[in-house]
User: Fold this.
Amino acid sequence: MAASEFKHLVVVKFKEDAKVDEILKGSENLVSQIDSVKSFEWGEDKESHEMLRQGFTHAFSMTFEDKDAYVSFTKHPLHVEFSAAFTAVIEKIVILDFTVAAVKSPVVVPP
Assistant:
């Protein structure tokens, strides 16, 4: 992983009436249509104690080649449209955007 990669990390608690499956499918659809997104992962917390979780339930992580690619993503019309729908179903959110400081790169197994 190059030191110049840029991460967009979003941790949320959805509103009670949120259609989470639709949001997850929408997220996956969004990133598949925008080339500047290098990778996308999401997960639902199943292991943390409620006290530590503070109500947050889902995390989304996107990797970009660099900060410029991230900025381009934030201005993309599909992202702008999706963000409005996403924000409408969020009760709590934390967003961290940062340049990656790689300490231990993933092991690549040759084919």
In short: Residues 6-99 form a domain with the Alpha-Beta Plaits fold (CATH 3.30.70.100). Residues 20-33 form the longest helix (14 residues). The first strand starts at residue 6 and ends at 14.
